[in-house]
Amino acid sequence: MLCAAALAFGLAAPLPGQAPALPPPAPTVASPPALEKAFEPYVEAIPDSKVRFEMVPIPGGRFLMGSPENEAGRRADEGPQVEVELGSFWMGKHEVTWNEYDLFAVARRGDAPPPPPPPSGADAITRPTPPYADESFGYSKGRQPALSITWHAAMEYTRWLSDKTGHAYRLPTEAEWEYACRAQSATRFSAGDDETSLNTQAWSRKNADDQPHPVGRKQANTWGLFDMSGNVAEWVIDRYDASTYAQWPRPAKNPVALPDDKRYPHVVRGGSWDDEPVRLRCAARRASEPTWNRRDPQRPQSIWWLTDATHVGFRVVRAVQDTKPLQGLRSRVTRQSP
Predict the structure, then answer these.
(1) Would you say residue 127 lies in a domain?
(2) Whole domain around residue 263: which residue ranges?
(3) How many domains does the chain have?
(4) Are 195 and 277 in contact (CB under 8 A)?
(5) Is 125:182 a contact under the CB 8 Å cutoff?
């Protein structure tokens, strides 16, 4: 079920007295006073490795989520627009790379020592089974974004990362993702309305030469996030529902469409290197589907790897203060899931 009454973060930005009129003004954003010194960019070192990744602070505030009815390329599931209030969070400066993901995935395949057993009563963190074919699809690894990762695998990675670092990492909610992508803009793309403005920030079918690219090669948006549009589309926590926004209260505080135990559909955002620019709009939504794994001959099919979705990856977030529905949230998908 949708979490229609999701609780607000304890450190949300101040609220104006009235909801913004259409078209919306720039979002109201402010770093919480108690976090002025601590709420800064930081570099996380993954223990027992030389791998590091950067996190960017995104101050909470309000914004208008979705697209107006007259936006070029708009689809019906991008509305009705809804005012959303979010708390502050950090977001990965880049999409999760193979350098990062392989620390989690390769250990299961004998290339690293197995993890110690969990304490009594603790949930074991499962790791990916060996992929059916080359998981990088010949695009190489290293600083390339991890791709063809299932939603379940992305969720388990964030759980593993939280256990390794002691910080509560997770996938972004759909609302957090769009807020971060817009970076205080109200245009089709964070860089503007015209598709030509997209070239400075994104890899799409127009300029990617039929392949993903190492993260961070284009310009960042105004909040310092790279590849929010294009390169690989990105998983979010939310279960996909075309009518999601109509079900949220006004304003919606930290909304999320909580997932269930089904493999599909979940939401991916941002578009990819294999998409036309219209799919890279800030408001564009896409639902995952079984065809993304149609060439997997295993029965049941893998819950870790996708054979036909080289356009899908993910990035991580860490909330300043998570709402109760998101605290300890984990994937309920199993091999028996429909």
Answers:
(1) yes
(2) 2-326
(3) 1
(4) yes
(5) no
The mean-pLDDT minimum among 30-34, 146-150, 289-293 falls in: 30-34
331, part of any domain: no
Q: The domain that contains 49 carries what CATH number?
A: 3.90.1580.10
pTM of the model: 0.85
What's the longest Cα–Cα distance across the chain? 58
Are the CB atoms for 138 and 208 separated by under 8 Å?
Answer: no
Residues 236 and 310 sit within 8 Å (Cβ to Cβ): no
Closest CA to 29 of 9, 58, 66: 58
Contact status, residue 128 vs residue 108, Cβ threshold 8 Å: yes
SS3 labels along the chain: CEECCCCCCCCCCCCCCCCCCCCCCCCEECCCHHHCCCCCCEEEECCCCCCEEEEEEECCEEEEECCCCCCCCCCHHHCCCEEEEECCEEEECCCCEHHHHHHHHHHHHCCCCCCCCCCCCCCCCCCCCCCCCCCCCCCCCCCCECCCECHHHHHHHHHHHHHHHCCCCECCCHHHHHHHHHCCCCCCECCECCHHHHHHCCCCCCCCCCCCCCCCCCCCCCCCCCCCCCCCEEEEEEECCCCHHHHCCCCEECCEECCCCCCCCEEEECCCCCCCHHHHCCCCEEECCHHHHCCCCCCCCCCCECCCCCCEECCCEEECCCCHHHCCCCCCCCCCCC
Structure tokens at 3: 């979490």
Q: Is residue 264 part of a domain?
A: yes
Of 135-139, 169-173, 183-187, 303-307, where does mean pLDDT reach its minimum? 135-139
Is the separation of the CB atoms in 269 and 237 below 8 Å? no
pLDDT interval class at 46 (50, 70, 90): very high
CB distance 177 to 236 below 8 Å: yes
Q: Is 217 exposed, middle or buried (0-12, 13-18, 19+ CB in 10 A)?
A: exposed
Per residue in 325-338, pLDDT (tens digit) is 999 999 999 999 99
Domain-embedded: residue 207:
yes
